[in-house]
Amino acid sequence: MTTTSQTASGRHRLFRRGFLSSTLLYAGMLLAIIVVMAPFVWLLISSVAAPVDLLRRPLAWIPQHISLDRFAELTFGSSPDANAEGFRAALINSSVIASAVTIVSLVVGMPAAYAFARLRFPGRGWLILAFMATYMLPPIALILPLYQIMAFLNLRDTQLALIIIYASFVTPFVIWIMRGYIATISSDFDDAARVDGCSRLGVLWRVIVPISLPGIFSTALLAFLMAWDEFLYALIMTQTTASKTLPVAINDFIGRHGLDFGLLATGGVIAALPPVVIAFVFQRYIVAGLASGGVKG
Q: What is the pLDDT at residue 297?
């Protein structure tokens, strides 16, 4: 009888301990979600709230007046405002620049990543560290020489200048990520393809790329976001709407004598939509790429 009571008491203590730990875990997760999501929720609310609601004290999470006029102003040109026109031009510029940088980085980075993962050559370790060193250097240390180079090439205030600069630090990132992903794929696939007569490039294109699609999609999204969100180089290198990107255009909403917080929030929401849409459309590949590393060798 005593043994049965002790067993029941032990199970009760274990249940209480497990219940307490689960409660603390879920409470921590809920707190983290609130902390992370609250700024984004407030950004969305501010983008549709009327100016009178944004100036109210105390602030209310649910605005009394909801309007989509700012979205129409920034996207469809319902007013001849210079900042709105610049924002629409910047939206096109950012799309072109980020897409071009992603394509260039993948085209250059995939063969390099395959070479670093599969080939053994002198200085291999130092060379990959040199690539990563260019990625880790602070932008402020490179802005002056890059500006002088672009001025010498007559590329200031052009999309091409930003594509070249962004590709210079996105490509090493792509090489580093895809090198680790390709290294997890069994080299037996390479050997089988080589026996069938494939060259190294044939193995990369016909074998490695199809197997690595989840990793490629994940890396492409990260590369796109790096080019899409970059601010410092775009601020220094661009002066007109011919090449301004979204972060710079949104910064233009901050005037010397005032701040249009509503337009600022609306621009932030619009700027966040393309990456969110891309992530949603390709979520199956992205999750697979982040969760697995191919076939282990």
A: 39
Residue 266: how many other CB atoms lie within 10 Å: 27
One-letter amino acid at 228 equals W
* Structural domain containing residue 14: 2-54
Give yes or no: residues 171 and 109 share one domain: yes
Residue written as tokens 């070249």?
A: 164
CA distances from 93 to 46, 174, 236, 244, 248 (A): 25, 22, 16, 7, 11
List of residues 6+ apart from 173 with CB closer than 8 A: 105, 135, 222, 223, 226
Q: Encode pLDDT of 30-66 as tens digits.
A: 998 888 888 888 888 888 887 777 777 777 777 777 8
Asked, for residue 29, whether it belongs to a domain, the answer is: yes
Instruction: Describe the crossing of helices 159-183 and 124-136 by its angle, rounded to 10 degrees.
Output: 140
Q: What is the mean pLDDT of the chain?
A: 82
49 strand-pairing partners: 66
Q: Please tell me whether residue 172 adopts helix, strand or coil conformation.
A: helix
- Residues in CB range of 236: below 8 A, 6 or more apart: 143, 147
Residue 133 is assigned to a structural domain of this protein: yes
- Please tell me whether residues 78 and 214 are part of one structural domain: yes
